[in-house]
């Protein structure tokens, strides 16, 4: 153990604190700008999503800031709509993953013997199950919608969250203060709320932030294959698929959604990295 192991974030050298703060700040700015664009798209759009009055593959300028696509639709309108779909997909998938993952993870951590082995095996199978194949099964049972994609992504990510929660909870349950609480008559629900969740939430929040970025990429991939939000919903993945044939003549159709997708994922990853440095003492010690 070094002298920096016991330092709190406020006691770390100014250069190190500023570097970590900068990472979190940059991530918040990038992700916040996309979130703001998504919020604006709910309240206002330059054109209707199905408006094809523009010229085909017009360049940026005039009444179309980013130009138009091969059908004459405004690209800025599509990009703004795509930002809303990306944020909805990320939040929806993470919500499902958190709800199912935390529940299954806590149950698996408290389980003993064959039940623990069964739940662990179930989680391993679900993790190994490809998200794309799961999405295809859900789409076959329902239809190709944003809801189907979010459900498939959320179910796939819930297994990852559950396995992490199981490991974290078992680690907390092995602590002496938890044993003392149980010996004093504290019920299991109160133990979870008072001792388990407060000790696992820093690591859990970081993981969920990372899962958000992965969910956005997964939704874009599913939409690229036609398994996401159907037209006229302009998902970034579908925009990339439609623009690949005209990239040389009208590159804005692919560059705009591609750049925003990359910026959102980078921003979320930087937020997760900043939160890890801020909230996780173990990570602070390793990087000191």
UniProtKB/TrEMBL annotation:
Its main location: membrane. Residues 83-272 form the ABC transmembrane type-1 domain. It is a multi-pass membrane protein. CDD domains: TM_PBP2. Keywords: Cell membrane, Membrane, Transmembrane, Transmembrane helix, Transport. Gene3D superfamilies: MetI-like. The chain crosses the membrane at residues 21-47, 89-110, 122-140, 146-165, 204-227, 247-272. It is found in: Cell membrane. SUPFAM superfamilies: MetI-like. The keyword Glycosyltransferase does not apply. Belongs to the binding-protein-dependent transport system permease family. PANTHER family: OLIGOPEPTIDE TRANSPORT SYSTEM PERMEASE PROTEIN APPC (PTHR43386), PEPTIDE ABC TRANSPORTER PERMEASE PROTEIN (PTHR43386:SF25). This is ABC transporter permease. It comes from Streptomyces silvae. The lineage of its organism: Bacteria, Bacillati, Actinomycetota, Actinomycetes, Kitasatosporales.
């Amino acid at each position: 153990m070094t002298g920096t192991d016991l330092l709190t974030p406020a006691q770390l050298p100014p250069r190190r604190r500023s570097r970590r703060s900068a990472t979190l700040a940059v991530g918040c700015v990038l992700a916040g700008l996309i979130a703001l664009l998504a919020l604006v798209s709910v309240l206002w759009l330059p054109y209707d999503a199905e408006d094809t009055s523009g010229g085909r593959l017009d360049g940026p300028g005039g009444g179309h800031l980013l130009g138009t696509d091969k059908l004459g639709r405004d690209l800025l309108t599509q990009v703004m709509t795509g930002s809303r779909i990306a944020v909805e997909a990320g939040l929806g998938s993470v919500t499902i993953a958190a709800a199912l993952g935390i529940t299954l993870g806590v149950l698996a951590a408290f389980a003993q013997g064959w039940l623990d082995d069964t739940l662990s095996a179930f989680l391993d199978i679900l993790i190994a199950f490809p998200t794309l194949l799961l999405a295809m099964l859900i789409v076959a049972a329902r239809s190709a919608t944003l809801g189907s994609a979010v459900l498939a992504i959320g179910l796939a990510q819930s297994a990852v969250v559950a396995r992490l929660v199981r490991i974290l909870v078992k680690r907390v349950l092995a602590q002496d203060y938890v044993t003392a609480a149980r010996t004093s008559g504290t019920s299991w629900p109160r133990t979870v709320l008072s001792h388990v969740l407060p000790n696992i939430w820093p690591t859990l929040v970081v993981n969920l932030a990372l899962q958000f970025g992965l969910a956005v990429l997964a939704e874009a991939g599913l939409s690229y294959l036609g398994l996401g939000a159907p037209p006229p919903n302009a998902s970034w993945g579908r925009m990339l698929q439609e623009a690949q044939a005209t990239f040389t003549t009208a590159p804005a159709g692919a560059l705009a959604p591609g750049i925003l997708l990359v910026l959102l994922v980078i921003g979320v990853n930087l937020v997760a990295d900043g939160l890890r440095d801020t909230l996780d003492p173990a990570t602070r010690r390793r990087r000191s």
